Amino acid sequence: MSYLKPKFAHPRLPKNDLGYTKKEYEGVISTLCAGCGHDSISASIVDACFELDIAPHRVAKMSGIGCSSKTPAYFLRNSHGFNSVHGRMPSVTTGANLANRSLIYIGVSGDGDTASIGMGQFIHAVRRNVNMTYIVMNNGCYGLTKGQDSATADKGSISKSGDANSFEGIDLCALAIELGATYVAQSFSGDKEQLVPLIKAAITHNGFSLINVISPCVTFNNNPGSTKSYDYVRAHNEALSKIDFVPVKEEIVTTYDHTSVNVLEMHDGSLIKLQKISPEWDPNDKLSIVTALHNARANHQILTGLLYIDNDSVELNDLINTTETPLNTLNYDVLCPGSEVLREFVGRYA
Amino acid sequence: MSAVNDFVVRFANVNGTGSASANFLFAKTVFRMGVPVSAKNIFPSNIQGLPTWYEVRISEHGYLGRREGIDIMVCVNPQSMLEDIRSVKSGGYFIYDSTKKLQDTFHRDDIHFIGVPLMEICNREFSDPRQKQLFKNVVYVGALAALLDLDTKEIEQLFTEQFKGKEKLIAPNVKALHLGLDYIKSHYSYPLPFKVERRNLNHGKIMIDGNSAAALGALYGGATVVSWYPITPSTSLVSSFEDFAREFRVDSITGKHNFSIVQAEDELAAIGMAIGANWNGARSFTATSGPGVSLMSEFLGLAYYAEIPVVLVDVQRSGPSTGMPTRTQQSDLISAAYASHGDTKHVLLIPSNPTEAFEMMAEAFDIAEQLQSPVIMLSDLDLGMNDHVTTSFEWDDTRTYNRGKVLTAEQLENLSSWGRYRDVDGDGIPYRTLPGTHHSKGSYFTRGSSHDENAAYSEDSDTYVRIMERLLKKFETAKKMLPEPEKYGSISHSDIGVIYFGTTQFAAEEAIDYLNNAGINVQGMRLRAFPFHDDVMEFIDSHDEIFVIEQNRDAQMRSLLINELEINPKKLHKVLNYNGQPITADLIFSSIRQKLSQTTNSQLS
Question: Cα–Cα distance between A68 and A78 in angstroms, integer?
Fold first, then answer.
């Protein structure tokens, strides 16, 4: 069971612009297995929110069911969380977002929760461009039910029982790009340096942001032959770029070199700086990234970094022309047309 | 045989030929003449080509249920003609397109045949191929106008209203109407013994379908987020809501919508979005039918256990499985009342007419938010998709929305401690907070797994039982918030009670009148909500025998009564109709009379 961390914090802990220490972005102590990749991702979420100066209560943490879906308890304890139904986090988040577009939505899911039971809802959240950050903690297996292969397990990958997976693994990033996703990134739970800026950019992105994070399961999928073990991922990780995220407020003090760094401007004016490693890759070009993903797969590599971004993304609420005012704040006077209008209206049926 | 303002006309058409608007024109004319009328669509699950019927009952007594036996059949569908001729009551009339001669074998000596060469007239008078087809429908309305003595001025007025903005369509419609009228006048004696005489019985009434009424209720009730998946017969509820919202909820300056509607990928997502929106403090609903309720069950369990308000409309159709998608039934009672695995119970609202659909739908949001639990409005195809003569809607401007126990930032600031699932007031209803309210107080983790009063995960047995018991207490509290049952009948005392609900009301109350007129004293009670009000138990206790009338095979309401009120099953007799057609007073009357005579006989022997 979960237990509370001590609330005591050192008085000289560094504070962000809102006056919060990082401690105030943490959650309760994790009950996941020691060494679980998911805990590293939770820590990266804490860092990203702290560094972005987000007021914790302006974040809604959404999840489905599974090991990964437990993690919202382990970060941002001053945020509301919703641990919903297996595979159904996207619909609950969509509804929540329609109700109040002013909050920040961080959805956390697993590979079973997303690529199997929740595949239908996942792809529709992508195509609707729901304004949310969708983090898949992808370990290729079902942890809570003791290690069955999931739909993202690579073909031929060997599970703890020693059996090779017979079926093709689903590439969530390639799929999302195909569906029209406006922000797609891939990372590794153990690479905080890459993951934190990716999360910051995802939160800032105006639309659906997918971050597929390979997050090894230490208990059921960290054995030789597994393509989602720590050793395998470290050996096959092929970073596309070195990423840095510059919030809008720091814009003026930033200097960058256009010759070696690709700078992307976000809708709010903040910047993503990408130091390219692969010369033929352009983060605004779907074709090149799809080809790169196929090539990487053939070469048993895992491409990480920001894979694709659409800087002109229009999120769901704007696509359906919803008012800027959060719908949950509209009052009776705005919502109810009143008796006079009703009397006239029913006249059509008289 | 003569009947003024008391007969049934049935139209036999081919689906997709434009007959619906002509048939409605006929019913609306009777309504405008001040005579109570009810119209039922009996249509196939098909877009074009299959037989479809429209049955209109005209009843000066105001009996708006279906009645057995057809007095006048208007048949423009050769496919169903033989069956249609057979269905006419002896002494009745069969009106048909006589462009083709009627087969001799079709003839019946005990009914009257009135041929009108619809196709021939239209081919001669109209050049446009589509008009030739469409105006056949208006020509037969013209023929009926002469035969039944309808006021043609009313029909012409309806054309004017219908074609507002498309005025050039008025003249050809009026022409077609008079072609039918003149044909009858020059070939037959008119009017028939069956005819409509003007009355003033529809004062303060409108003619509207239940889905439009419920949609309007949702708009007035403050719904802002609507998520849905198309399914007959609920689809028109959401499309009506969209029409109304575009009319009344668009900001006049920015042009932005003060609502959002998302067509979901399936019913699971539809209810998921509605729950997410309600969790976040917007009033949100979804509408579906039986198959959708099956799919939504898991989510309904989450909303029940995590205590999230949500409003769901189930416009019931014939099940099980796909069943008969375009036929009516009341067969989702148990699946709705106990939707989801584990121990769950849900509040049901059961409207009988569009006025109640409007009122209950608006009220449903107040109830759901006060209870922090799902509220399911159980409509049905008959109510949802047919036009009903009903009391006009009213809205009290002094009314406000009751948002239930939601803590504001200020309240949170002043609270020394708070727990999401604590029963502070002793009514089983805790206080909730909305995301984003306060920077350091009131956040919690919503979950469908077992939790304690502070919303923390817990597998402690005592804690689990305590929360489950509190949910029962909350269900008890719900009784006081729900519409009370309604008694019917002028008989002061009776040993026999009749219980009914929803669209069965019309036929049930007509049957009660017949029984009373036949010297059989019965009293009626119409249920309007679940959990049952205390009056229901009292009604059952104060009668020796109870008949429960419902439109499903397994007597589901009877089961609910037995289960929830612990009634001796022997006391509750079933009166059932589940063939997909709305129940008739004739069936109820004869079932009850037969059962009572059996009982009397066995007591005598």
Answer: 19
What is A22-333's CATH topology?
Answer: Rossmann fold (3.40.50)
**Residue A250 scores a pLDDT above 70:** no
Which residues in chain B have Cβ-Cβ distances shorter than 8 Å to A128? Answer: 262
> Mean pLDDT score of chain B, rounded to an integer?
96
A344 to chain B, closest Cα gap in Å: 11
pTM equals 0.96
What lies within 8 Å, CB to CB, of B430 at 6+ separation is B307, B372, B405, B419, B420, B421, B422, B423, B424, B453
| Contact call for A339 and B395, based on CB within 8 A | yes
Q: What is the pLDDT of residue A272?
A: 78
What CA–CA distance (Å, rounded) separates B279 from B223? Answer: 14
Which of B433, B443, B449, B458 is the best mutation test for A, with the most CBs of A within 10 A?
A: B443
Rounded to an integer, what distance in angstroms lies between the CA atom of residue B263 and that of residue B269?
9
Whether A350 shows a pLDDT value over 50: the answer reads yes
Mean pLDDT of all residues in A334-343: 98
Say which DSSP state B105 is in: G
In chain B, the domains with their CATH numbers are: 3-201 (3.40.920.10), 208-391 (3.40.50.970), 409-479 (no CATH), 486-604 (3.40.50.920)
Q: Are strands A132-138 and A208-214 parallel, antiparallel or unpaired?
A: parallel
Which tens digits make up the pLDDT trace of A204-225? 999 999 999 999 999 999 999 9
Interface test with A, best of B32, B33, B224, B386 (most A CBs within 10 A): B224
Question: Do B434 and A96 lie within an 8 Å CB cutoff?
Answer: no
Distances (CA, A) of A162 to A168, A223, A228, A348: 18, 9, 14, 72
Distance of CA B599 to the CA centre of its chain: 34
- Asked if B258 lies within 8 A of A335 by C-beta distance, the reply is yes
**Residue A252 pLDDT:** 45
